[in-house]
Write a structure and sequence with these properties.
- The structure is a homodimer.
- By secondary structure, chain A is an alpha/beta fold.
- Chain A folds into two domains: about 260 residues, Rossmann fold, CATH 3.40.50; about 140 residues, Rossmann fold, CATH 3.40.50.
- Chain A is built from 19 helices and 15 strands.
- In chain A, the strands form four sheets. In chain A, strands 1-4-5-15-10-11-14 form a seven-stranded mixed β-sheet, sandwiched between helices. A four-stranded parallel β-sheet of chain A has the order 8-7-6-9, sandwiched between helices. A two-stranded antiparallel sheet of chain A has the order 2-3.
- In chain A, β6, α6 and β7 form a beta-alpha-beta unit.
- At the A-B interface, α3, α6, α8, α16 and α18 of A face α3, α6, α8, α16 and α18 of B.
Chain lengths: ~450, ~450
């Protein structure tokens, strides 16, 4: 007799509220500071860039925030998302551990990003915004926002890092198919872009430059706002629907996780899977270990400093209290592009400081080894980002085997890796490497930060 | 109050049997003939290529054939597949029609092909086969079989048309990730390949050549068999799980289709969605229209002849009674590579001859227009093949609007188009064209066929 592989909620069981962990944190994050005055930023500072409803969510202390019906209606194109028991992977590992994965790769964009793209587009639309600008690296976030904007009848302008624009065209095609305008950054459309190109006409671009261009366009136009795909509190809030669903699905499975794992870039998919389980730890005395998994080549949580730092490379955004490697530190060119970010959001940083979560790092080759094993057992090609969580889960399952102990593991499979197949090809042909970061390199970057904490 | 978008069966509601339409056909298909003797082929003729259980299924007259538990266990990685109501598309069309789509693009390979890859691999494995060879064009079928073989511990050798091998690398990467050996065809590994290369060292290859190479390797090695992804009766049989699920899901929706549409290449996804509904027409007096949708550039059903013809280009396979454009007719290079096949399988051809199904054709630009509208409304990027069914559904919905009548439409969305995004890019930039086939061209090709009917 077969055991159930997939745990699927009906549409009417989909959560109606996001969970706001700010309400339950024993220590709240320090406030963001204005980059010029170094004073806490107020709503008026953010109003040129974000609609008021998102600014309210950014500072809300309400425990639950209702998901608007219009948002839930679009969520239902792919949500509730399935929770799987990874029987085939368990068998290959010959482990006593049980491995569950929440699968967010079935969304229209192939990742968890639509969970926040849809509500961000919705709140902008409700406040009369006509156009949203954003930046994107490899294009996961830009593609999620493109469909969201199209759905609500708004224009979407995506500044895509030029080197990715040229080398990774599939997500550009995806954004175009959904009607978005995709611009290679640096561009001649903005002062920021023109300044960069004046210095270096062949600049390959960077996420920092693309943010500068997108923010500039939003700040200069009344009917245009800016949108960000991770880091900020309201973005993490929207992702909590992942964990709220997972709690119900683990109950369907008659199980509860001993450890919850999510890969870590800016924090959004990690927050999505974990915040609900942190709540259960805080309020109901559960003892689940919550583990963020970052690349060894971008180790802000395991080797960074806790300090105020900018969210972008050039220093235009508010200063955020974060674990960081320094805002002008350039991560190595690993294939998990979504994890190449110098800092962690304010909430997650505070949780780590308070030891309510743990962090581990994994080297690139180990993540691809894990990704290939996952593909060959469970069938799904995992995103290189998500493969970090898989690698950590395999490590936990192997420990369980060594110790001869049962252990229930839950990971967030935040995206599929179909568009990343060239990276798998490179790995299988021996063309990938590990990147080792020296303590000196980290110290040199972080020592430049102003000591505001 | 929102209406349900997705109709999802529990794992324990997944059908336990495939439906064999041969049992209920008023006129059975004529038998396949040996290419040399022109006499009906027997099991012994097919034994070098296929395991006995599949040969039995090829000629079975049993109405239902049980799906082995080992196959169902793997099916449950992605099955039951969801049935969606396309509310967003209906709204964009402003139609009174209701449009449902069965979505097979959520499988590990992104299409319906795993429905037959898994059982084919299973029956080979059960009979001690160590290695399976097959051909693939763009790679949909080859990738489905690669994971299936890996799962059952068999080698998989895929002869991939060289021009696709070079120009469309993503599915090659996919096959490699699942552990298959992918060989650009023509190759130096076979007599067939060497002969072609002796004449033309720069041959771009063709599906016909790739079939010859795969068949040769299987025929020459005792522990190796050959596998085909469409056309044959047992392949269509395995796909009927699509329709069996859809019947249950339409009942969940409290609805029943007036018309069922599937795109048409060799017939497998079309058979999958439609055979169960043909049964309801034949046995229960239902009046659902069943429509195959083919490319206007490859119009075997709407403009071909009904005659015995070879399944491959070079004439090595048995002669099959089929609607055909002639086995050496080369379809234009449309982007729906899966529909570029000169003939239709024996069962579907007989059904069309007996007017139990209809056929229509759609031009390429119309299919991409439909695909983009679908992507911008329902979010899913449809495969160019599946976009044919969408185009026909939109036509039906527009007719319903003109007539001011209700109409319930069901289509098979047989695959997603993520790996086909460059085709969408080309369409959006005006780089695609329609292909018009003249009557003379068709007559010239089909007049060469031996008149055996």
């Amino acid at each position: 007799m077969s055991k159930t592989k997939k745990f699927i909620l009906n549409e009417n069981e989909m959560p109606t509220h996001w969970y706001n962990i700010m309400a339950d944190m024993p220590n709240k994050p320090l406030p963001p500071l204005h980059p010029g005055t170094k004073q806490p930023v107020g709503p008026q500072d953010l109003a040129p860039l974000f609609p008021m409803e998102l600014i309210k969510q950014e500072v809300s202390m309400e425990q639950y925030i209702e998901i608007p019906e219009e948002v839930r209606d679009i969520y239902r194109l792919w949500r509730p998302s399935p929770l799987y028991r990874a029987f085939q992977l368990e068998k290959a590992l010959d482990t006593p551990a049980k491995i569950y994965y929440k699968y967010e790769g079935g969304s229209y964009a192939g990742s968890h990003k639509p969970n926040t793209a849809i509500p961000q587009a919705y709140y902008n639309y409700k406040e009369g915004v006509k156009k949203i600008t954003t930046e994107t690296g490899a294009g996961q976030w830009g593609s999620a926002l493109s469909y969201a904007c199209h759905h609500f009848g708004m224009q979407c302008q995506v500044y895509m890092v030029k080197i990715s624009y040229e080398q990774k065209p599939y997500r550009k095609f995806l954004m175009n198919t959904w009607g978005a305008e995709v611009i290679a950054s640096p561009s001649m459309l903005t002062n920021a872009g023109r300044q960069i190109l004046a210095k270096d006409p062949n600049s390959p671009g960077s996420l920092g430059i693309a943010i500068s261009e997108a923010v500039e366009v939003a700040a200069m136009n009344d009917d245009t706002k800016y949108s960000l795909g991770s880091v900020l509190n309201h973005v993490l809030l929207h992702q909590t629907i992942i964990g709220e669903e997972s709690l119900k699905q683990m109950a369907m499975a008659g199980d509860y996780p001993d450890v919850v794992l999510g890969c870590f870039g800016g924090g959004s998919n990690f927050a999505g899977i974990s915040f609900s389980f942190i709540r259960e730890n805080l309020l109901k005395g559960k003892k689940t270990r919550i583990v963020a998994v970052e690349p060894a080549s971008c180790p802000k949580l395991t080797r960074g400093v806790f300090q105020y730092d900018f969210g972008d490379t050039v220093g235009m955004t508010p200063l955020i209290p974060m674990y960081t490697l320094g805002h002008d530190w350039i991560p190595a060119s690993i294939h998990a592009g979504g994890l190449r970010y110098h800092g962690a959001g304010a909430i997650v940083s505070q949780l780590l400081k308070d030891k309510l979560i743990e962090a581990v790092s994994v080297r690139q080759l180990k993540t691809f080894e894990a990704g290939v094993l996952f593909a060959r057992t469970e069938g799904i090609i995992p995103a290189p980002e998500s493969s970090h969580a898989i690698a950590a889960a395999i490590h936990e399952a192997n420990l369980a085997k060594e110790e001869g102990k049962q252990r229930t593991i839950l990971i967030n499979l935040s995206g599929n890796g179909i568009i990343d197949l060239p990276s798998f090809d490179k790995y299988l042909n021996g063309g990938l490497e590990d990147y080792v970061i020296s303590d000196d390199e980290i110290a040199a970057s972080t020592s430049k930060l102003e000591k505001l904490i």
